[in-house]
Specification:
It contains eleven helices and eleven strands. Strands 1-11-10-2-5-4 form a six-stranded mixed beta sheet, covered by helices on one side. A hairpin with a 5-residue loop joins strand 7 and strand 8. The longest helix has 31 residues. The chain is globular.
Amino acid sequence: NVEIVDPLDLSSKVKELMQADVVATEVSCTLLAGGGLHVQTPPGTSAAPPLRSVAGPGGVVDVFTRTVGSANSDTDLSFRLRFKDEAEVALRAAEAERSHQESLESAAESPGGDTGEAEQLTAHNPDVPPSMICPILMEVMTDPVMAADGHSYERSAIEQWFQMSQGPPRSPKTNQQLQNCELLVNHALRNTIEELRQSFTRAQPPPLPPLLTVPVQLQVRYTLPSGERCVRVITQQMTVSSQREEAEKELDFTVIALTAIHTSAGLAQEGKYKEARVNLVSVQRLLQRGMRDNAQQEAYLSFIVQAEKLDQFMRERQQYEEVFGSENSGLADRSANGRACERDDDASKAMYQMKSVSVRAFCQRV
């Protein structure tokens, strides 16, 4: 039994598939991603899932297969995709060309203004050292300033960071409390960036072809209780953009928020508590910027509930490790420290469960 799904009906078909009140066995999902997309292994995964690349008519395609086993209406599955470097360069080249044309059209209104050359020097260029990249925006800086933590940031980004901070200001890089919010212009770094930008502009490589869509296909194989084996194939050309405002208009808050909870829980399970918190804070700010209607507000509130629970579990685990040590946290004397061990076990179990919390539990804020 094979069902070919209309690409225009992708979202509704996926929801129908995941919400169908049918118990299935031998469930496996295969994701095929082309156009320069790369399938990533989620944090906290003990063994890398089967991932291979095959040559197709349109180029190299990543093929990712994950076995689910038995599934019901509460079973959720997510995939993490990101652009490979060459694909993102092609996308940004197309966007930079569009920005360049727009700047030329408005040259009469802004004589001598920027013509888009700054966008050509991206953080993904191998010639750009990390010191030139703003830790907040992850882009090459144009107005670098140094904060009290000794690190440099894009002025507009660090000023917005201070404005949105609650309580004493903290470093975006180290999360340590800062003595003040003073910013010093980093003249040396600014001159170095400008010299690199000029040399990069003089030696531009041939433009890459624009990348406006990428192909994605999901194949779900499962067996019904009757023994009937089924396959569902869902294919779509997904529109992509490097313009943040355009992308944020199309955000699916539930997907973004739940993926952030899964990712941070996986990082926390590996003991990467700082990375887990940075991920939660970044997604929280993303959702705050894009929130426009009641449904998005509900998803945001569900995210806050789950994020606060996860943060509490991480604090309990950290406190335990500070007392007993991370390497011996599982070998402590339970007769003398039974209550502490029990709390540690509860926190570890909770972080493991949050790594796979379902959409239904997320939306119910349980």
